[in-house]
Write a structure and sequence with these properties.
By secondary structure, the protein is α/β, with parallel strands linked by helices. Helices cover 53% and strands 9% of the residues. It has 3 domains: 17-211, Rossmann fold, CATH 3.40.50; 217-284, Helicase, Ruva Protein, domain 3 (Orthogonal Bundle); 295-383, Winged helix-like DNA-binding domain superfamily/Winged helix DNA-binding domain (Arc Repressor Mutant, subunit A). Strand 6 (361-363) and strand 7 form a beta hairpin. The two termini are 38 Å apart. The structure holds adenosine-5'-triphosphate (ATP) and magnesium ion (MG).
Length: 386
């Protein structure tokens, strides 16, 4: 197999994830799932594998919903997908098609009045659900938080929440249907923006939150080894080198692909010192080929309140220079030693919790805190010149 960092990979080339996928199918027996995890960790690949080999008794259907910018576009997207299935199964009669034609959803909107997207979405899902005889329907919706945020920007917070509320009603109305919402930005950020402190909607509290971790170590080693061989890199001890790649990549399949692609591009052998050099080069490269600057640029967007973004950066600074986890009191002292004003300890605790939810930080059982991913810690320290 050739390295393909960030490309669409064939479900057959999705390494590991079998246990996670089995867990997801098991959970779906009971309820719908909210799949949130760090960007580039392999969420889409998990969904693609689920869509490709659905568990017995399930009918999975996947859409990348990021492309929809309004509730109407989303409803039409679901409608189109349902039509494709119904067409394939030669089922012509259906509720949604009538609505679609009646309200000319396919044409250009002439009046300012919105078309009844909710009715179309509900009817399309109803149409598909009624065709499921032996199987149960599961919608795999990738990048749903982005879509909800797009809708908030285009149509306002109320419309964004209405989409989530409609989906919740559909889950209640059709107890056999399941949904998986996946995305790297936490839905909590999007919900907060949509509610704007005015609406207290809880549209996903019936869903089960699942986090996608890095690859299991043996799967990651197998991936790294196969890529090293697939790219024909020189190597003395394949397993030893694959282990170094995996350690440097924190088990992220995306960075494993990148490291091997980097070795190939620079025509280096897959030897430990060369591997480390490639990683170091990438971490300091001004062009930021791994797009790590994202971890910095999203801070003010994630923590817009008061000086929270500044506090978040100081927390990361304090944790970046030392591999040892630090206590809350330690972090408080580090912030107080700077010019930033920290209201009180509970403000710090609140920010720390948010940063945990956003995968920056990891809390140990003894309450001490560290970076969630060592690779990001290394990059942060280099980037900030610490
Ligand atoms: N299980 C896997 N086996 C092999 N390669 C993988 C696997 N998962 C991810 N990858 C590699 O990592 C890249 C990113 O994976 P994927 O697109 O699934 O991540 P993601 O979490 O959906 O990312 P994003 O946050 O950008 O949406 C893929 O293009 C592929 O190169
Ligand atoms: Mg993805």
């Amino acid at each position: 197999m050739k390295a393909n960092p960030g490309g669409v990979i064939d479900p057959g080339n999705v390494y590991g994830r079998d246990q996670l996928i089995a867990q997801l199918w098991g959970r779906l027996e009971q309820q719908s799932v909210l799949m949130n995890a760090e960007r580039r960790i392999g969420k889409t690949s998990v969904l693609r594998k689920m869509a490709h080999d659905g568990a017995s008794g399930w009918f999975p259907t996947m859409i990348d919903v990021e492309k929809f910018h309004s509730a109407e576009e989303f409803a039409r997207g679901v409608f189109d997908q349902v039509q494709t299935y119904l067409g394939k199964w030669k089922k012509a009669a259906n509720l949604a098609r009538d609505l679609y034609e009646q309200h000319d959803f396919g044409g250009i909107r002439r009046t300012g009045a919105p078309r009844p997207w909710k009715a179309l979405l509900t009817a399309a899902i109803h149409d598909l659900a009624t065709q499921m005889h032996e199987q149960r329907l599961v919608f795999l919706w990738d990048e749903l938080p982005y879509m909800i945020d797009h809708i908030r920007q285009a149509d306002g917070g109320r419309a964004a929440l209405e989409v989530l509320d409609t989906l919740r009603s559909l889950r209640q109305e059709h107890p056999g249907i399941r949904m998986v919402f996946s995305g790297s930005i936490g839905l909590h950020h999007v919900l907060e923006g949509a509610r704007d402190g005015k609406i207290s909607s809880e549209p996903v509290n019936d869903m089960y939150a699942v986090e996608v971790p890095p690859l299991d170590i043996e799967d990651a080693i197998r991936l790294a080894g196969d890529l090293i061989q697939g790219e024909g890199l020189g190597v003395k001890d394949l397993r030893g080198s694959a282990e170094v790649v995996v350690k440097e990549a924190d088990g992220f399949p995306f960075y494993i692909h990148h490291i091997v692609a980097g070795l190939k591009r620079k025509q280096r052998a897959a030897e430990p010192d060369q591997i480390r050099m490639v990683v170091q080069d990438h971490l300091v490269d001004a062009n930021d080929p791994w797009d790590l600057g994202h971890y910095r640029s999203r801070i003010p967007i994630y923590y817009p309140k008061g000086n929270n973004a500044q506090i978040a950066s100081l927390i990361l600074d304090a944790l970046a220079t030392d591999q040892e986890p630090r206590s809350v009191a330690d972090l408080q002292a580090a912030i107080n030693a700077s010019s930033a004003v920290l209201e009180d300890r509970s403000e710090l605790v609140r920010i720390l919790r948010l940063m945990e939810r956003d995968h920056y930080l990891l809390r140990q059982t003894d309450g001490r805190i560290q970076f969630r991913f060592p690779l990001i810690r290394r990059w942060w320290a280099l980037d900030r010149g610490l």
